[in-house]
């Protein structure tokens, strides 16, 4: 596995642990369709919470949250509609969150959660 992929997988694992500690129930991880992928789909028992996880080892390319562009957010919204259809979910309230994971080599890992980011 490439180092970048391994870092991303580690970040998603940490993000899921964080969400579960916050009381969310994870419904899907890395759900794919022809239009793209959803990193984490969860519920807080009130609404569906679709989470984009971005992991970085440093800020040389910007902060992790900055990587979620308007185009990326639009794609996530489209893919969410496919997820809803595939799971035969009619209407439900949806919140789109970003989890920014910083994992510097040899440093302390941090998870920043941006509920309702887009």
From TrEMBL:
Top-level division of the source organism's lineage = Bacteria
What PANTHER family does this protein's entry cite?
A: UPF0102 PROTEIN YRAN
Similarity comment = Belongs to the UPF0102 family.
| Protein name as annotated | UPF0102 protein GCM10023321_09450
Which organism is the protein's source? Pseudonocardia eucalypti
